[in-house]
């Protein structure tokens, strides 16, 4: 068997293609470069949902209405829920959104991570959640609900670029979880809950918060190489590096680095923070090349995600929630594709324990 199902093909999809050898990502026939050039998250949703739901584009107004609809669930957030980490509190609220396999149900599930995360962050700070404004784009409204002020066009473009970049990515662990659940015909909400549970681990979507912890610990460009060497010698993984499929640089890293540079040029990112990140990246790549020569390890999507989301005002403990805001579109499209065309996913295992029928 292949440990971790590495290289195992487990689905056919029309949704996205991850070319790990050449570092390319295609979403429904569109390259990542073309996708991030000016697309809003709503545009990518239309692309992903096309053919999977009756009634579709344009989705912006329907998504705005869905944000308004799910906002009411924040009233049920009690003290016990607010003590949970944001991603777990968001998951608990998501379970209340209701189920259905139509477009309206799907859009409520897309709206929920943004509305719940923004509301929960404010409630945790003792402030009232801000109601959604359905007239705004999804990215603009999300930033407004989190920060309490209208974002600049550049901030909106940066969040759109992030959400578009992470919207779908082949059969990653969370999408596979979504497809497994969808294959039992359990419905969209259960598929999204399973996917979110898989996403939150540090080997998948839980990495960008720890990337910032790593930058903080590395301290300065001068001290970074020694700190990284020590961390690797202690058996730690360098967060934001390595990937199961990419054997070259993750193309999403550069899509996001472009947005980070844009924010830095407008003063939204401290140049010293960017210089530290670039120094840590260079030192980590050099170190990984020397210490892990058999495994090509390069920068993945999470490294510049961390800087981008920090600059947009998201607290690091909520980064996984923001990842879910984007990836939820892909989860839903994959769940629909699986439920409509696929069979029950039920692989085999090899039993390696003792056998009662074999005499000692
Ligand atoms: N730092 C140090 N060593 C690493 C790293 C890393 N970031 N990534 C892989 N390695 C090493 C492993 O220690 C192992 O070395 P060994 O054979 O000497 O023991 C070798 O590379 C292979 O590692 P695996 O765990 O088998 O590789 P896998 O494909 O399972 O891992 C993963 C992929 C989980 C992303 C890994 O690279 C990692 O842990 N990265 C850090 C966490 C991270 O950035 N996660 C976000 C991924 S992107 C996403 O999910 C959206």
Helix and strand arrangement:
Blueprint: E1 16-19, E2 24-27, E3 30-31, H1 32-36, H2 41-49, H3 60-71, H4 79-82, H5 86-94, H6 103-124, H7 138-147, H8 153-166, H9 173-183, H10 188-199, H11 208-218, H12 224-233, H13 251-265, H14 271-291, H15 301-311, H16 319-341
Antiparallel strand pairs: 1-2, 2-3
Could you describe the 3D structure shown?
With 360 residues, the chain is mainly alpha-helical. It starts with 15 loop residues before the first strand and ends in a 19-residue tail after the last helix. The chain has a 3-stranded antiparallel beta sheet with strand order 1-2-3. It is globular. The mean pLDDT is 95. It folds into 2 domains: 29-152 and 163-202 and 318-341, Orthogonal Bundle (Citrate Synthase, domain 1), CATH 1.10.580.10; 208-311, Orthogonal Bundle (Cytochrome p450-Terp, domain 2). 55% of the residues lie in helices and 3% in strands. Acetyl coenzyme *A (ACO) binds at residues 4, 172, 203-205, 207, 237-244, 292, 295, 297, 300-302.
Short description:
With 360 residues, this protein is mainly α. 55% of the residues lie in helices and 3% in strands. The protein is built from 16 helices and 3 strands.
H/E topology pattern: EEEHHHHHHHHHHHHHHHH
Mean pLDDT across all amino acids: 95
CATH architecture of the largest domain: Orthogonal Bundle
Number of domains: 2
Structural class: mainly alpha
- The CATH class designation of the largest domain is Mainly Alpha
Our estimate of the beta-strand percent is under 5%
Shape: globular
Strands in their spatial order, largest beta sheet:
1-2-3
Largest sheet: 3 strands, antiparallel
Number of helices: 16
Q: Fraction of residues in helices?
A: 55-70%
Alpha carbon gyration radius: 21 Å
The CATH topology of the largest domain is what? Citrate Synthase, domain 1
The hetero molecules present are:
acetyl coenzyme *A
The count of strands amounts to: 3
**CATH-level-4 superfamily name of the largest domain:** Citrate Synthase, domain 1
Q: How many angstroms does the end-to-end distance come to?
A: 27 Å
Q: Any low-confidence stretches, pLDDT <50, length ≥5? A: none
